[in-house]
């Protein structure tokens, strides 16, 4: 492949005719004609008709002896991007395979690469491979890039540098890893010319100066080897190994060496017919000259991951200088030059079958080759990723800054966010894909540019995120968030809430939160420990009030009972200590004096009440409240006497009154009722209380009062107590 040669369509058809069928060659011609028509009236930066570019690309692919579809793809690779022709019309005019190849190249063209650190370059390469899906798309892209590098001089310097950088970081390594060293060297040397012209031309100069000297030296070596080979009856091609500027440049930079110190400046390559001959030639070389220790490499027994096979040795040459020798078969040499492309051709016996099945077989074969390859870590890693990316499911997407992030296919923006940083993941509230808002379960596609929207005020991950995320990394971090960060927060929050609630119930947390009590309550609510219970309160899965009520229920009951018993005891003592009342009803009976008057016990009338009286056998006059049911009987009505209260009494006679107070059953209610009565300086002669299932409390008290005015005051006072619903004067 000489750089300066411009291939014509006839050159290509002739070359293709050497290894493809007539039918295939016609197919290729058709692709050329299609492309020529599509690109008519278009010109390159150089001023040449545009079609020259796709023709050169197809030409490079023909030199690699690629199949007809790939060469057609080479002709058509810029048609969709640069003209009105659609993928569909290519599929119609040719076939699905060609359309797929063109589509792949078009998509790769959209990836923008900014020079970054090595890891980013590697990710870009992987993205290329993943997006290509078919290795032939990469081969077309490499041919495309090669011709663009050859014509780089027509672009402005800034573009030259950018494209050269991209070539060194993405395309040359891809060519190397696919074993296509001819393309690799040319890409590297050309890139160097634009990136470091000073060094490039210096090396060119030095090589020129040394050339005569070197060439005569190599000739001397080759003569001697040829002699020996003839004696051994081994058929071989000998050549001085071509020098690659970039590899010399890299060695000088890396090993900090002068131009003269680079060994393989002096190198011979020997091509033979069989592996047996390879080792025979090695023996001859090592007999003629002394091998340098540690420089022998057997890449025949242990091929490089990119399929390269050869014997390498360095000996002390005739003039005492190190001399590198490479020995390999012609087939190995083809693979060394054309890599995966050569394998393609050899495997198919130089005749490529178009059907889908044979393509699948090729992929299987490719995978097998990858499987048994094992070399340096880096190479191994690449092959591993190549395998994964080509044959399984990864997706490569961009950060807004142009970094490539690798994720399993099916990943969503949240996977991306967590891959960037846990905190970004936790605070994600939305995502823009290629500048447009998309839902968080949007499935990422190769080449998407993702901008994660975050908020400081985000509540953190939601449980749904566990379902939509794809990567275990994201899932683990979400779970961690729930389990750890938020949990600790919630435990603290929950405990504080429970403590406060306990204090509101007039208890001290330390009295309430005994181990025994906690255990009883968290088991009751089906938690496995107190922390789980507090955490649940923290995230409001259960209220602090409910937990606290449960925690204090025992203490509360015993305290209330105690309080009530104490109060009743006190009242009893008080009543006992009082002097018995003088028997004086304070009621006058109209027209009758000195009648025995008894205030009935059933309704306890007091001055101010409307009263009625009737005579009972042997017990004098019985006085009832006018509304007392016992005064409504027929018998009573027949014996009514008119009765009334005595006016202006000064002895402050006291009367019993029964009251029933109903209210919400809470701690301290009884006390407050009794206290309210006491405040009115009223004596209490009886207290009783009960409560029902609906948390209703019923308190019965008997008090001693002077009159209904006095009673009203007391009733009003009791009604003011919080949680008291009714105060009723009761009948016995
Ligand atoms: Mn192109």
How would you state the average pLDDT, rounded? 81
Main beta sheet strand tally, sense and closure: 6 strands, mixed
What is the helix tally?
Answer: 29
Residue share in helix:
40-55%
Global Rg: 52 Å
The low-pLDDT segments are: 346-392, 578-583
Structural class, from helix and strand content? Answer: alpha+beta
Q: What would you call the shape?
A: rod-shaped
Alpha carbon gap, first and last residue: 123 Å
β-strand number: 21
Q: Tell me the fraction of residues in β-strands, as a range.
A: 15-25%
Bound molecules: manganese (II) ion
In short:
This protein is of the alpha+beta class and 732 residues long. It contains 29 helices and 21 strands. β7 (394-398) and β8 form a beta hairpin.
What does this protein look like?
The structure is a single chain. With about 725 residues, the protein is of the alpha+beta class. About 50% of the residues lie in helices and about 15% in strands. Strands 1, 2, 3, 4, 5 and 6 form a 6-stranded mixed sheet that branches. The chain starts with 8 loop residues before the first helix and ends with a strand. About 5% of the residues have low confidence. Bound molecules: manganese (II) ion. Manganese (II) ion binds next to loops.
Question: Notable features of this structure?
Answer:
about 725 residues; alpha+beta; six-stranded mixed β-sheet; four-stranded mixed β-sheet; 29 helices; 21 strands; rod-shaped; binds manganese (II) ion
């Amino acid at each position: 492949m000489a750089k300066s040669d411009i291939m014509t369509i006839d050159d290509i058809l002739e070359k293709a005719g050497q290894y493809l069928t007539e039918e295939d060659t016609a197919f290729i011609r058709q692709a050329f004609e299609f492309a020529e028509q599509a690109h008519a009236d278009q010109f390159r930066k150089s001023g040449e008709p545009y079609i020259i570019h796709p023709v050169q690309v197809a030409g490079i692919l023909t030199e690699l002896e690629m199949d007809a579809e790939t060469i057609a793809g080479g002709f058509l690779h810029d048609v969709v991007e640069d003209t009105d022709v659609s993928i569909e019309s290519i599929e119609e005019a040719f076939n699905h395979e060609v359309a797929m190849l063109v589509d792949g190249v078009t998509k790769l063209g959209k990836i923008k690469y900014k020079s970054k650190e090595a890891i980013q370059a590697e990710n870009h390469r992987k993205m290329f491979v993943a997006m290509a899906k078919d290795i032939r798309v990469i081969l077309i892209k490499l041919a495309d890039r090669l011709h663009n590098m050859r014509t780089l001089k027509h672009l402005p310097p800034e573009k030259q540098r950018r494209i050269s950088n991209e070539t060194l970081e993405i395309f040359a390594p891809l060519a190397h890893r696919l074993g296509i060293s001819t393309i690799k060297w040319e890409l590297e040397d050309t890139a160097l010319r634009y990136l470091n012209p000073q060094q490039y031309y210096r090396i060119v100069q030095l090589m020129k100066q040394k050339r005569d000297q070197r060439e005569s030296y190599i000739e001397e070596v080759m003569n001697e080897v040829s002699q020996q080979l003839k004696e051994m009856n081994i058929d071989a091609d000998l050549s001085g190994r071509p020098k690659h500027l970039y590899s010399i440049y890299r060695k000088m930079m890396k090993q900090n060496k002068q131009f003269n110190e680079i060994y393989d400046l002096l190198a011979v390559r020997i091509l033979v017919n069989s592996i047996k001959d390879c080792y025979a030639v090695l023996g001859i070389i090592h007999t003629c000259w002394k091998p340098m220790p540690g420089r022998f490499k057997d890449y025949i027994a242990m091929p490089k991951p990119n399929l390269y096979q050869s014997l390498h040795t360095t000996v002390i040459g005739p003039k005492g200088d190190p001399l590198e020798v490479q020995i390999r078969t012609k087939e190995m040499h083809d693979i060394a030059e054309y890599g995966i492309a050569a394998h393609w051709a050899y495997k198919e016996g130089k005749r490529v079958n178009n059907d889908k099945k044979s393509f699948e077989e090729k992929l299987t074969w490719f995978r097998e080759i990858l499987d048994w390859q094992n070399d340096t870590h880096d190479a191994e890693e690449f092959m591993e990723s190549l395998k994964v990316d080509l044959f399984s499911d990864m997706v490569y997407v961009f950060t807004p800054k142009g970094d490539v992030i690798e994720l399993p296919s099916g990943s969503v923006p949240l996977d991306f966010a967590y891959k960037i940083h846990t905190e970004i993941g936790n605070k994600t509230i939305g995502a823009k894909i290629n500048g447009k808002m998309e839902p968080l379960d949007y499935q990422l596609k190769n080449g998407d540019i993702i901008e994660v929207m975050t908020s400081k005020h985000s509540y953190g991950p939601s449980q749904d995120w566990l379902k939509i995320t794809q990567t275990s990394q994201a899932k683990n971090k979400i779970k961690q968030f729930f389990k750890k960060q938020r949990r600790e927060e919630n435990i603290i929050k929950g405990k504080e809430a429970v403590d406060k609630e306990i204090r509101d119930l007039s208890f001290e947390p330390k009295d309430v939160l005994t181990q025994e009590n906690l255990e009883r309550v968290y088991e009751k609510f089906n938690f496995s420990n107190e922390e789980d219970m507090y955490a649940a309160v923290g995230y409001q899965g259960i209220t602090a009030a409910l937990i606290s009520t449960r925690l204090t229920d025992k203490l509360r009951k015993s305290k209330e009972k105690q309080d009530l018993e104490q109060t009743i005891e006190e009242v009893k003592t008080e009543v006992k200590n009082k002097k018995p009342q003088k028997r004086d009803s304070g009621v006058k009976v109209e027209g009758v004096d000195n009648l025995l008057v008894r205030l009935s016990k059933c309704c306890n009338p007091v001055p101010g009440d409307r009263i009625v009286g009737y005579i009972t056998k042997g017990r004098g006059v019985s006085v009832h409240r006018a509304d007392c049911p016992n005064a409504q009987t027929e018998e009573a009505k027949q014996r009514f006497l008119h009765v009334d209260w005595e006016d202006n009494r000064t002895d402050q006679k006291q009367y019993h009154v029964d009251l029933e107070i109903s209210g919400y059953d809470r701690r301290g209610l009884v006390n407050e009722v009794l206290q309210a009565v006491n405040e009115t300086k009223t004596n209490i002669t009886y207290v009783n209380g009960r409560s029902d299932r609906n948390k209703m409390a019923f308190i019965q008290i008997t008090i001693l009062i002077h009159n209904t005015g006095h009673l009203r005051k007391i009733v009003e006072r009791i009604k003011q107590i919080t949680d008291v619903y009714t105060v009723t004067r009761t009948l016995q």
